[in-house]
Amino acid sequence: MTTSATATLPPASAGNKAPASAQLKYASQAVAKPYFIAAIGLFVGQIIFGLLMGLQYVIGDFLFPAIPFNVARMVHTNLLIVWLLFGFMGAGYYLIPEESERELHSPKLAILTFWVFLVAGALTIVGYLSVPYATLAKMTGNDILPTMGREFLEQPTLTKIGIVLVALSFLFNLSMTVLKGRKTSITLVMMLGLWGLAVFFLFSFYNPHNLVLDKYFWWWVVHLWVEGVWELIMGAMLAFVLIKVTGIDREVVEKWLYVIIAMTLISGIIGTGHHYFWIGTPTYWQPLGSIFSAIEPIPFFMMTLFAFNAVNKRRREHPNKAAVLWALGTGVMSFLGAGVWGFLHTLAPINYLTHGTQITASHGHMAFYGAYAMVVMTMISYSMPLMRGREANSNASQVVEMWSFWLMTVAMVFITLFLTAAGILQVWMQRMGDQPLPFMAAQEKIAFFYWLREGAGVVFMIGLVVYIASFFIKGREDA
Amino acid sequence: MSASFTKSAARNMFYGGGVFFFLLFVGLTVDTVRTSPKRDNSANLTEQVVRGKRLWEVNNCIGCHTLLGEGAYFAPELGNVYTRRGPEFIKAWIKAQPTGAPGRRQMPNFHLTDSELDDLVAFLKYTGEIDTSKWPPNKEG
Q1: What would the mean pLDDT of A246-251 be, rounded to a whole number?
Q2: pLDDT for residue B1
Q3: CB of A94 within 8 A of CB of A32?
Q4: Is there a domain that residue A259 lies in?
Q5: Which of A53, A185, A281 sits opposite B32 (nearest CB)?
Q6: What residues contact A227, with CB distance under 8 A and at least 6 apart?
Q7: What's the whole-model pTM score?
Q8: Residue A32: which region, alpha, beta or left (left: phi > 0; alpha: psi -120 to 50)?
Q9: What was the pLDDT predicted at B20?
Q10: What span, in angstroms and rounded, lies between the C-alpha atoms of A213 and B30?
């Protein structure tokens, strides 16, 4: 393989010398660029609404009734999902042609799909913000096929159908590319992950009247995505970038990749059971869910080991230091957020007390940032300079990008810690002891930690602004 | 990793493990669905409850509240609200929203009719009677 990569990329310049000019191996890889730009734009929107919600936690009537909390939250979480999907698609369009060693089947279709997805996504968000949710449900014919009003799957049925069509066009395009080209383990894992993502999304159309079954199959999308097929996509992206920036042997990387994703599926599929403790499903889910989710941190730990090993044994000094930093950060932060913070409250006797509290929120924040936000930024960091005609950005630009890495990552650590503190106090006051406090009384007592979380959120936003600024820093050519 | 552990062994572990555990999951799902009526209170799944569930969904109640611990964490758990507050309180509370108390978290007014309020209460009663292995730990949710 390495022949293909090194053939186009000039040898790494010594030290931090000027980034060499480079070009894409396949011109059609450039369709990833609008996807990545849209992803970053939606990311900004996500954080703005996150800050707004954080404020509503402490100033309850902030922007009420213009933007009620439930609307802000829907925008926050839906933008997260959509920007990550844009990131995955951009990554797919970039990675698959290079791995398959041929041009993308249809770059035109990829661009068309991009606009369809962007416009549909934007219209959905406008819908959330401009009319009451019940009106939106009526306008979009929710009565014909009711799928709305379930956490993370709030999109109108029409939007859901649109997502399926976009996904099909994307998968068709990539699958055709793979079929006609070289097949590597990375492409295979990436494609399995992406097909799995589309297949499990179909369960979002199933909304039985029976609440227990509704919740049961809802997790087939939500859990089997984030603790299943998305991890395949993440593993493939990380493996791809690590091969490129370290030059280590593909055989070694692919072996690691298989072991990691094997552990992901072995632990994660039955690990779905940790969501089945208290929703009316059989009690055997308690031991099953506890045991298998105790194994779930292992693949994340292996991912960290893998990333550090790869970088330590690197065979070349890639000039894109920022991409290497993002890759290492993804390993560490996904292990902490998804692995450690997930395990903290995943055993049934502990989960009995923590289920549905701020502990869940703390884990959710670090896990999504560490695993998925960071891996998309790893991919962007590596490929964006190439799409802009150079192997790496200037030193000055990379320094700013690395600042943004630390600002966002440290801010997220603090957001998680403050929410954990809030969660522990909430559990203590509301669920333990002889005189449990009502929900709102407990919330008022922990407002201090919500303020601290909001402060950390502001730092995160600053980090994101710095991140975007890094794209506009040219730096001296001979820096 | 040792040289004796080859890439194809790793690949087999992935395919074998993935397929085995997915099939096991499907099997457990079949059992869960089959035995569900013992715990899921579906015997009381009336037309009124179904209408109540739809109201719960189209007003995006999950965007602030949790229901059986899932949802947002901004407003109280409602899986057990029927036992905590009783039907009349729930209806009066929904009608009285928003409170307008300065600085306090606000719930929108959804302009539900009296029969819709009854539907919603029926849904919350049905939800409260699902066997959740004694969760939440106490009436405060």
Answers
A1: 95
A2: 54
A3: yes
A4: no
A5: A281
A6: A264, A268, A271, A272, A296, A338
A7: 0.95
A8: alpha
A9: 98
A10: 11
For B21, the closest of A59, A71, A270 (CB atoms) is: A270
Q: Which domain holds residue A126?
A: 26-183
CA distance A271 to A265: 9
* Contact with chain A for residue B46, Cβ under 8 A: no
What is the C-alpha end-to-end distance of chain B, expressed in Å?
A: 48
pLDDT at A21: 73
Q: Above 80 in pLDDT, residue A17?
A: no
pLDDT digits (tens, 9 = 90+) for A276-300: 999 999 999 999 999 999 999 999 9
pLDDT higher than 70, residue A15: no
Instruction: Let me know: does A154 contact A80? Beta carbons within 8 Å.
Output: no
Q: Does A253 map to a domain? A: no
For residues A307 and A242, the answer to whether their CB atoms sit within 8 Å is yes
Residue A40 lies in a domain: yes
* Polymer length of chain A: 479
Q: How far is A188 from chain B (nearest CA, A)?
A: 11
Number of domains in chain A: 1
Give the separation between CA A402 and CA A322, rounded to whole angstroms. Answer: 6
List pLDDT tens digits, range A414-444.
Answer: 999 999 999 999 999 999 988 999 999 999 9
- Chain B, residues 84-103, CB within 8 A of chain A, namely 98, 100-103
In this structure, chain B runs to a length of 141
Q: What is the ipTM of this complex?
A: 0.97
